Amino acid sequence: MSSIFTKIINGEIPSYKVVESETCFAFLDINPLAKGHTLVVPKKEVDYIFDVEDELYSDLMLFAKKVGKAIEKVVPCERVGVTVIGLEVPHAHIHLIPINGISDMNFAKPKLALDKDELSELAKRMASEFR
Ligand code: AMP
């Protein structure tokens, strides 16, 4: 069965899409740690990030860098934190999170409740950085 992220990439379930390349896809995390929390995934479904083959892994990292730069322009922050967990969704993904301190990267803390309009507006503003 396809992962939830494959379904998002294929447009079978909705997402707050930011941008895509030939091989990768970026969309907002639905339960964000911070405003602008974005997931970057390879279109090819591979569970564990270190099982992604080298060329695609490089694509993913360079894609994440571009998306990170777009986040910085839209969401004021000191840095964009980068992390990989992958315990919940078995489709490799990188979390990009606008941060101002170490506690902003604490995945154990309660997630933000952003409404649909806010998420949609954020995704739109980030997407516009690629035009
Ligand atoms: P992990 O696999 O532990 O790195 O966590 C998976 C992440 O995917 C979590 O931060 C979830 O909030 C996020 N997530 C799960 N389902 C969706 C979805 N349908 N759209 C956007 N983000 C999602």
In short:
By secondary structure, the chain is α+β, with helices and mostly antiparallel strands.
Could you characterize the architecture of this molecule?
With 131 residues, the protein is α+β, with helices and mostly antiparallel strands. The chain has one domain: HIT-like (HIT family, subunit A, 2-Layer Sandwich), CATH 3.30.428.10. It contains three helices and five strands, in the order H-E-E-E-H-E-E-H. It has a five-stranded antiparallel sheet with strand order 1-2-3-5-4. Strand 1 and strand 2 form a beta hairpin. Helix 2 crosses helix 3 (116-128). It is globular, with a radius of gyration of 14 Å. The protein starts with a helix and ends with a helix. The relative contact order is 0.22. The mean pLDDT is 97. The site of adenosine monophosphate (AMP) has 11 residues, from loops. Adenosine monophosphate (AMP) is lined by residues 4, 15, 29-31, 39, 85-89.
Relevant terms:
131 residues, alpha+beta, HIT family, subunit A, 5-stranded antiparallel beta sheet, 3 helices, binds adenosine monophosphate
